[in-house]
Amino acid sequence: MAARAAEPSPITFRFVEAPDGLPLNVAETGPADAPGILLIHGIGQSYLSWTRQLNSELASTFHLVAFDLRGHGGSGKPWSKDAYNHACTWADDVAVVMQATGLVRPVMVLWSYGGTVGMDYVRCRGTDQLSGLVFAAARGGLYPNAQPDPRIPKASAKLEAADVRQNMQGADEFTSFLTAQPLPAELADSVRAMSLMYPPYARQANDSRRILPDGTLYQNNEDLIAKLNLPLLFVLGERDMFSNATAAEKAIRARFPNPNIRTYAGAGHWVFFEAAEQFNRDLAAFAATARGGTK
């Protein structure tokens, strides 16, 4: 791996067709034969969330793939509620992206709501095709949320409203909660735009309870903990407004024996953006170890 090119590869794009015919916007970079890392973004965002990974030295030694979740960014935005509330629909999207990009047992990196998508994959597809999981400010329903800022659900409600003016206000507010430090104006505009590209009807459908493979409704994913028999890394932001880092660490330690946890000082919910260099180093080290099969 050390002998690979020093400069990151260019980012290429393609549309991949989901099993239900939905187009999924996929970005990838790095050598196609390198160990794979699949990056799954959070609610109302897109592959652009991973800019500081896709354009980093990680792309010199890893095959990086990010895609826009259904309803988000450049991916299709179906009207039907059924297109969003079945766990295995999200799992199938992940699987088809992995197949189309040639990812073989990648490390899956999950941010925020991406943790739920990752656990949908585990529930419906298992862990055999993965090398490891990184939870970047992502609970994945594995433990309760702890002390989120009370303004966050209010902003989310505005983003689900039929009034576009409320959507815009909600996008402004939601963007301000993602980082501990204010974003540069141009970048904040991009994040707000991504929030507005995730339409209210899709948000409403996605807020409904997930239908699990046995037909029951989603409660949480704590029943999956015993099945996570692969290397895990939990990354927390000390100043995350969506979940108190101290409480989150306590919850993780109560559920996982000797968990691998990194808490980044001064970082907010968008932890891999604000602490990109540290995150990229930790991700590279974790991915190398995970590929070696050491838990």
Overview of the structural elements:
- The structure is a single chain.
- The protein is an alpha/beta fold.
- It has a single domain, classed as Rossmann fold, CATH 3.40.50.1820.
- Helices cover 37% and strands 15% of the residues.
- The protein has helices at 51-54, 58-61, 87-101, 114-125, 151-159, 164-177, 185-196, 200-207, 245-255, 271-274, 276-291; strands at residues 12-17, 23-29, 36-40, 63-67, 107-111, 132-136, 232-237, 261-264.
- It has an eight-stranded mixed beta sheet with strand order 1-2-4-3-5-6-7-8, with helices on both faces.
- Strand 5 (107-111), helix 4 and strand 6 (132-136) form a beta-alpha-beta unit.
- Helix 3 crosses helix 4.
Tally of distinct domains: 1
**Mind telling me the CATH superfamily name?**
Alpha/Beta hydrolase fold, catalytic domain
Order of helices and strands: EEEHHEHEHEHHHHEHEHH
What is the average of the pLDDT values? 95
Could you give the distance between the termini? Answer: 21 Å
**Which residues form runs of ≥5 with pLDDT under 50?**
1-5
Helix count equals 11
Overall SS class: alpha/beta
Give the arrangement of secondary structure elements.
Blueprint: E1 12-17, E2 23-29, E3 36-40, H1 51-54, H2 58-61, E4 63-67, H3 87-101, E5 107-111, H4 114-125, E6 132-136, H5 151-159, H6 164-177, H7 185-196, H8 200-207, E7 232-237, H9 245-255, E8 261-264, H10 271-274, H11 276-291
Parallel strand pairs: 3-4, 3-5, 5-6, 6-7, 7-8
Antiparallel strand pairs: 1-2, 2-4
Helix pairs in contact: 3-4, 5-6, 6-7
